[in-house]
Amino acid sequence: MSKLDSIWQTDKTIDIQMKYLPLNPGIFVQNRKRFCAAMQPRSIAIFVSNDEVPSNGDAIYRFKQNSDLYWLSGIEQEDSMVVLFPDHPEEKYREVMILVRPNELKEKWDGRRLRSEEAKKISGIQTVVWLDSLDGPLQQWIHLADNIYLDSNENDRKSSLIETREYRFIKQTREQYPLHNYFRAARIMKSLRSVKTALEVEVLQQAIDITRETFLRLLKFIKPGVNEYEIEAEIFHSFLSQRATGPAYGSIIASGDNARTLHYVSNDGPCREGELILMDFGAEYGGYCADLTRTVPVNGKFTKRQKEVYNACLHLHNYGKGLLKPGISIADYTKKVGEEANKTFLKIGLLTQADIKNQTAETPAYWKYMYHGVSHHLGIDVHDLGTRTEPIQEGMVFTVEPGIYIEEEKTGVRIENNVWITKTGNKDLMKKIPLEADEIEALMKK
Predict the structure, then answer these.
(1) Quick one: pLDDT at residue 446?
(2) I need a labelling partner for 180 at 20 to 30 A (CA). Which of 65, 205, 214, 355 fits?
């Protein structure tokens, strides 16, 4: 028996326990095939998990897996790795899953860790190696390769200055193997992750359906005197009771003038008679994120002016949704929605002809009342990987979320759905979630 053979795992299969129901491993099998097809010949790609991040004292933040590693494997456990080497002469080493060895004492404190058969069932990767046995075989694999793909967090919205495990691993590998050719896995990931397979969208749809049920629950709960944090609590309860991992991001529950703060997360104000409440929330299910925004009247009835502003926002939402199809870039799409926003804001008395005449390309008139982008990619990350300059492709998933924020009226309205791009247009994955003002009023009245 070779040294490599001796580190294969042979544990018996045990039923996998998780909040969400087991996903189809074909999701991750497809994803790995897509990535390997984009690699240079004689290349190895190595992906590492995120760090466990300390908070205070001896506590750590809840672990969140590296999105690229999850996209390739479906494994959410810390201290994991994925190695892809499609040209390895032995087939069993073309895909390798690395796991931390289960430790009896650690499991008494922190809970059970994956066994090899469980990891195989989740990921579809048939070769599993313990992390503490990896150094020898990894060196042999790298010596057989000419090129090494290493991963990095190149999300355009990244702002953290902390050196993560990815960058430490890059530094370590380049020092140990200086004569190899190095490539950025992130360039491939940005292209591939932005285009969702049908299997991925099935999971995303489950997150959306959970979010829908939660919104319907909220329409029965919201009334004057309820506090924002109570609504957030209802969201969290509803998500967990439907097998969601939890919120995909910090829920925004913004009543009255709080709605003008785009990332308002205090959620500590009262919901008052006569105000609107903007709610931006979504469930995470199986690693995929829903992203919904609805704005409703606290007392269940829009005023005439509130409905006018709401319907103006709904018009922009539908207009933007109609533009999203293969071939248009996000930059051109945003420009067209902005031009329509100028016309719409003129109709409802927010802008004047002079405002539009005096605008510049750098500061369009509509920015006074809609000061954010209209869409972003959606998937494993809420702000998922994807280009903003190249043409939109079939299979991409976007949010559509215009907003109108009026300082003079101390109010804000935003409407957001998630759409999947098709050959000729798009499919609204949230089409079953109430959108029209009259429908919302009717449901709240019940």
Answers:
(1) 82
(2) 65
Closest CA to 429 of 303, 306, 330, 283: 283
Residues 10 and 87 in one domain: yes
Handedness of CA 356, 358, 363, 369 (dihedral sign): negative
CA neighbor of 71 nearest in space, from 151, 16, 164, 162: 151
Q: Read off the pLDDT of each residue in 347-363 and give the average, rounded to a whole number.
A: 96
Element (DSSP H or E) covering residue 314: helix 304-323
344: tokens are 């719409």
User: How many Å apart are CA 23 and CA 28, to the nearest integer?
Assistant: 9
Listed residues 171, 192, 213: the one ending a domain: 192
What is the spatial distance between Cα 142 and Cα 157, in angstroms, rounded to a whole number? 32
Residues 170 and 303 both lie in one domain? no
For the chain, give me the number of helices (H) and strands (E)?
13, 17
> Which residue in the block uniquely carries the two structure tokens 């999701």?
27
Q: Please report the DSSP string for 342-396 in residue order.
A: HHHHHHTTS--HHHHHT--SSS-GGGGT--S-S--B-SSSSS----SSSPP-TTB
Residue 427 contacts residue 325 (beta carbons within 8 Å): no
Give the mean pLDDT of 33-40.
Answer: 98
Task: Please say whether the beta carbons of 262 and 372 come within 8 A.
Answer: yes
Same domain, 176 and 213: no
Whether residue 388 is predicted with pLDDT greater than 60 in this model: the reply is: yes
CA distance 418 to 218: 19
Q: What residues contact residue 360 under an 8 Å CB cut-off, 6+ apart? A: none
Check whether residue 230 and residue 182 sit in a common domain. no
Rg of the chain (C-alpha set): 24
Q: What integer pLDDT is reported at residue 221 of this predicted model?
A: 98
The CA distance from 335 to 155, in Å, is 23
**Of 75 and 157, the one with more pLDDT:** 75
| pLDDT score for 16 | 62
Residue that finishes a domain, picked among 143, 177, 192: 192
Q: How far apart are the first and last CA of the chain?
A: 70
The single-letter DSSP state of residue 5 is: G
* Beta carbons of 7 and 137 less than 8 angstroms apart: yes
Question: What is the full DSSP assignment across 289-302?
Answer: E--EEEEEETTS--
Rounded average pLDDT over 301-318:
98
Could you give the number of structural domains in the chain? 2
Query: Would you place residue 11 in the very low, low, confident or very high pLDDT band (cuts 50, 70, 90)?
Result: very low
Residues 170 and 221 in one domain: no
Which amino acid, one-letter code, is at 390? E
Contact 277, 255 (CB under 8 A): yes
pLDDT at 336: 97
**CATH number of the structural domain spanning residue 162:** 3.40.350.10
pLDDT value at 5 more than 50: no
